[in-house]
Design a protein that fits this description.
This protein is α/β, with parallel strands linked by helices. The chain is about 30% helix and about 20% strand. It is built from 5 helices and 7 strands; from the N terminus they run ββαββαβαβαβα. Strands 1-3-4-2-5-6-7 form a 7-stranded mixed beta sheet, sandwiched between helices. Bound molecules: guanosine-5'-triphosphate (GTP) and magnesium ion. Magnesium ion binds next to α1.
């Protein structure tokens, strides 16, 4: 299938589960802690500068953002977690919205895979591990992307690579940089494969 990535738009920034769109196309969800580089990764995949907003102030918005990619795939940008300074109310909003996406959402059958982002420099946080446990237990197909790999030196890159294979259930692990484009093609390939899109 040919996907025209130039034909991508923010369909809706949903602050309430009832705003989740019902468009019957496969969904790929992006999950990770706040500031991990999720918006930058989405922009890099779509070769756009600022379709997804890259924030100077992390964790500000608690919304699920749905991007319609050429009417063929929906990118679902889940709200980032682990933002320490977030207010109690915002944390509650985060859990309510994220839970609603995974469990109370009639469109969840459309979810083909979760792209779980981990900051390559920080490593997996407790929150990351908890999210991964959730994906494993719910048997949701997922792959792991290490972001900001342009910040690693050769030794650190090799160390990270040699740890690959230790996350149960992960379809694959990919080194990525929105800055250099590292891993971009590999990620597209893996995501389309998990969506059964040739
Ligand atoms: N060096 C480097 N910096 C990056 C990369 N990707 C993102 N950043 C920086 O990391 C910061 C956060 O990036 P975002 O893409 O906004 O991260 P996010 O996960 O969407 O953050 P929130 O939506 O606020 O939770 C920004 O300052 C980006 O410029 C990368 O590949 N390399
Ligand atoms: Mg973002």
């Amino acid at each position: 299938m040919n996907i025209n990535i130039n034909n991508a738009e923010l369909l809706i920034s949903a602050g309430q589960p009832r705003q989740f769109p019902a468009l019957p196309i496969p969904q790929i969800a992006f999950s990770g802690r706040s500031n991990v580089g999720k918006s930058s990764l989405i922009n890099a995949l779509l070769r756009r500068k600022s379709l997804a907003r890259v924030s100077g102030t992390p964790g500000k918005t608690v919304t699920v953002n749905f991007y319609n990619i050429d009417g063929k795939i929906m990118f679902v940008d889940l709200p980032g977690y682990g933002f320490a300074k977030r207010s109690f109310d915002d944390k509650k909003r985060w859990s309510r919205l994220t839970d609603a996406y995974f469990t109370g959402n009639s469109g969840i059958d459309l979810l083909r895979c979760v792209i779980q982002l981990i900051d390559s420099k920080v490593g997996a946080t407790e929150d990351d591990k908890q999210m991964i446990r959730y994906l494993q237990e719910a048997e949701i197909p997922f792959l792991v992307v290490y972001t900001k790999c342009d910040k690693l030196n050769a030794t650190q890159t090799n160390e990270l690579k040699s740890s690959f294979g230790s996350i149960d259930g992960a379809d694959c692990e990919i080194l990525f940089s929105a800055k250099t484009g590292m891993g971009r093609d590999e990620l597209w390939k893996a995501a389309l494969r998990l969506c059964d899109i040739p």
